[in-house]
Amino acid sequence: MRRLFTAGTAVLAAVGLLISVAVSTPVFAADARTVQVKGYLWEEMTAEDMAAARTQLEISNVTAALDLKEGTKIVGMSGAEAILASNASDMDGAYIADSPVTIKNIDAGSIFEVYKLKIDGNEYKYDLHEALPFTSGKVELYGADVITVDVSEMSNYSYDEPYYLNGCTVSLTEPGDYYAIFRYPAEADAAEVFITVEGKADAAVLKASPTASKVLVNGTVTSFDAYTIEGNNYFKLRDLAYVVSGSGKQFEVTWDGERKAINLISNKAYTTVGGEMAIGDGKEKTPVVNTSMIYKDGAVVPLTAYTINENNYFKLRDIAQAFDIGVTWDGATNTVGIDTTISYVAP
Fold first, then answer.
1. How many whole angstroms separate alpha carbon 96 and alpha carbon 86?
2. Prior bond of 100 cis (ω within 30°)
3. Is 345 a member of any domain?
4. Distance (Å, rounded) from C-alpha 92 to C-alpha 10?
5. Which of 131, 158, 193 is the endpoint of a domain?
6. Whole-angstrom distance, CA of residue 278 vs CA of residue 311
7. Residue 320 belongs to what H/E stretch?
8. What is the DSSP string of 17-81?
9. Could you read off the pLDDT of 220-275 as tens digits, one per residue?
10. Which of 193, 225, 249 is the last residue of a domain?
């Protein structure tokens, strides 16, 4: 668990505040109070290599960076025996955060665990057998066969090795000190984070406002039940699949009840299920984060989705990028364009 930086490359972007820790390669998340952590960095890496390095963890509701005292140790215990130990300098991030805090793995790995710490002198100790339960996510279990199950169901199976798919989450609601670790398979190193959780954060109620923009699909005005959530346009997934079906960018949508997963299949005509292109009531809604795993052509893809009235809504640009569908914006006429004859271009 060798570490060459005191706190990795995580960056906190708060209102009027930007804190960069140790390395000048910022890692920004969409939420101004969310940090993303890169743990696998070395002194020999160039700035370009650091910027391109993979992100392992994401932490919400961070309010400040935390300066751990030199000599602080984080020790993993099995009974009375110390098995693992990390120093303050090993941490890739140390933060103060307001409850509730969500820790999420942005990449897939063989270890993703979060522990509550107990103070013993200058040591913070945790029981290796008492990792906190997951809130959501999927894991591949390797044994005689490879199966994908919900992380909450792992104890129901016998397996040799787990592989945590990206998007697994652990929620921290109680004040206290916590330690999170992420590791790739066959890697001696790890991404490690120390978090002090304080009082409850003000609960922000997420709102979905009906999209006021006009939408053109291949030049034709088309009515959607679409919403604006935190400044982004979200469209009903099946509506998007419906309007591009028959084009060179078509895709199918299916539901895997066993894995509780959404499957997106490229170059396959969409199969209607009823309710496509139904118009909403024009009222503001309260969206709920969709925690289903999302697969595109058999591979997990990290797409943000919300559920509104039992329908799944995806960010238009995420779907457009996934299937190379052109998206345009005409500010003068307040018009969104969806064009299957051109390629996707990032804004």
1. 19
2. yes
3. no
4. 8
5. 193
6. 11
7. helix 316-322
8. EEEE-SSS---B-SSTT-EEE-----TT--HHHHHHSPP-EEE-SEEEE--PPTT-EEEEEETTE
9. 999 999 999 988 999 999 999 999 999 999 999 999 888 778 999 999 999 999 99
10. 193
**Ramachandran angles phi, psi of 319, nearest 5°:** -70, -40
pLDDT tens across 296-312, in order? 998 888 888 999 999 99
CB atoms within 10 A of CB 191: 32
Residue 129, SS3?
coil
CA–CA gap between residue 179 and residue 329 (Å, rounded): 44
The H helix count followed by the E strand count for the chain is: 3, 32
Cβ atoms 96, 67 nearer than 8 A: no
- Burial label, 267 (beta-carbon count in 10 A; 0-12, 13-18, 19+): exposed
Pair 172, 217 in one domain: no
pLDDT-based confidence at 1, cuts 50/70/90? Answer: very low
DSSP conformation letters of 207-248: -BEEP-SEEEETTEE-----EEETTEEEEEHHHHHHHHTTST
Same domain, 183 and 53: yes
Domain membership of residue 33 as a residue range: 11-193
Sheet holding 299-300, edge to edge: 251-256, 261-266, 293-296, 299-300
Q: Which helix (H) or strand (E) holds 316?
A: helix 316-322
On whether both 126 and 245 belong to a single domain, the answer is no
Task: Give which of 225, 223, 247 is closest to 236, Cα–Cα.
Answer: 225
Can you say how many angstroms the Cα of residue 308 is from the centroid of all Cα atoms in its chain?
A: 20
pLDDT digits (tens, 9 = 90+) for 23-71: 323 343 444 388 989 998 887 888 888 888 899 999 998 988 988 888 8
The number of domains in the chain is 2
Using an 8 Å Cβ cutoff, are 157 and 147 in contact? yes
